[in-house]
């Protein structure tokens, strides 16, 4: 396997882990809440997701930077700027959510989660446009 294909594969796996995890966690939290699961169980699930998702995001950012160089776009390419903008936006909202989750209401957490999902979909759209 060529270096480009390997980096691209790792990037896609990390990206899929991030977005797939968001969708799965959202569905799981709704189901667990309906079943009356204690908040501590939801927090434990969210913590574990946080470890996996932040690791995936770091890997996606590192491999994404490598792909920009390997694909020869350069950092001045406008589609790269769009994707990078969505990366920054997604990370900022996710960090805000993580920092404020313990003291925010369920509605506030839900709004941030929806914003993270929307930003991530935008990120994937920007990636497809490259």
Rg is 16 Å
Order of helices and strands: HHHH
Structural class: mainly alpha
The residue ranges in which pLDDT falls below 50 over 5 or more consecutive positions are: none
Whole-number count of domains? 1
Share of β-strand residues: under 5%
Shape: elongated
Overall pLDDT? 90
Gap between N and C termini:
22 Å
Number of H/I helices? 4
Descriptive account of the structure:
By secondary structure, the chain is an all-alpha fold. The chain has one domain. It is built from four helices and no strands. It has helices spanning 3-34, 39-71, 78-100, 106-128. The longest helix has 33 residues, at 39-71. It is elongated and about 50 Å long. The model has no long low-confidence stretch (mean pLDDT 90).
